[in-house]
Amino acid sequence: MIGPCGVGKTHLAIGLALKALEAGYRVNFLTLHQLISKVNKAHEPHLIDKLLSHYLRAYLLIVDEVGFLPLKSAEANFLFELINSRYQRQKAMIITSNKTFSQWEELFPDKLLVVAILDRLLHHGHALHIRGESYRLKHRREAGLLSET
């Protein structure tokens, strides 16, 4: 799911997660920042493998807020490995991002890695582009708490 801040990407992802949970599927939801923090704490190879294994167990993995922080090489490599492993096992993923795919090159240290990630995400997946004004800002403006600019 791609779109500007405040258009409901996370809300939709959570709604889909709840439906998957109701249907009996295991779901894991975290932000990219949370994922990267866990990767950075797991310095030893066996801990990285354990972390990867943990995120492969869920039927649906949601990684929220891709695009707010650029990734270092090791972080980007872990994300690729996670996406690739889930792709090979035909496990569902939802990724939310405020950046278009062409802007992902700004986030990753290696352009080839971006191509490889998008190749796997889009092969059997769908890109949902959400356009519009931030719901948070719209409601503040309607309540008279934000001036028109």
Short synopsis of the structure:
The protein contains six helices and three strands. With 149 residues, the chain is an alpha/beta fold.
* Gap from first CA to last CA: 28 Å
- Order the strands across the largest sheet as they lie in space: 1-2-3
Instruction: Kindly name the structural category.
Output: alpha/beta
**Mean pLDDT level:** 93
Q: What coarse outline follows from CA principal-axis ratios?
A: globular
CATH class, named Alpha Beta
Helix/strand order: HEHHEHEHH
How many helices? The count is 6
User: Under the CATH scheme, which architecture would be assigned?
Assistant: 3-Layer(aba) Sandwich
The CATH topology corresponds to Rossmann fold
Low-confidence stretches: none
Number of strands: 3
Spell out the CATH superfamily. Answer: P-loop containing nucleotide triphosphate hydrolases
Q: Mind summarizing the main beta sheet?
A: 3 strands, parallel
- Helix percent reads 40-55%
Beta-strand percent range: 5-15%
Count of discrete domains: 1
Radius of gyration: 17 Å
Written overview of the protein:
The protein is α/β, with parallel strands linked by helices and 149 residues long. It has a single domain, classed as P-loop containing nucleotide triphosphate hydrolases (Rossmann fold), CATH 3.40.50.300. Helices cover 50% and strands 12% of the residues. The protein has 6 helices and 3 strands, in the order αβααβαβαα. The protein has a 3-stranded parallel sheet, with helices on both faces. The radius of gyration is 17 Å and the shape is globular.
